[in-house]
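Recall that a protein's primary structure is simply its ordered list of amino acids. Everything else, from secondary elements to tertiary packing, is in principle encoded there. The following example makes that idea concrete.
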Amino acid sequence: VQLQASGGGLVQPGGSLRLSCAASGSIFSIDVWRWYRQAPGKQRDLVARITSGDNTNYADSVKGRFTISRDNAKRTVDLQMNSLKPEDTAVYYCNADLRYYSSSGSVSRDDYWGQGTLVTVSS
């Protein structure tokens, strides 16, 4: 199982970016998708999460500006980021609680991380 994040880059304050993360491998189901971010010298913080029932939660700092969404058929999650601020600058990581087919054929559950994508908000 692998998670591949994409979409980071340099954007001016007030601008928008859309991050995507795709899961691949012998996946049975993806229960919860999350986006985290880690700014230089700081801990990794939860930004947003979405459950299999499309229930969403956001960090207070991004409410009203970020939107998380998922496509179960494509096994992807997106993070639409609007009205970006310099303090949004960080490496963004996708994370998934998922069930996968093990080598024995049974279904196991584990937590996976993408490789991170850098978002820089600067003029």
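The chain has no helices and eleven strands. The mean pLDDT is 96.
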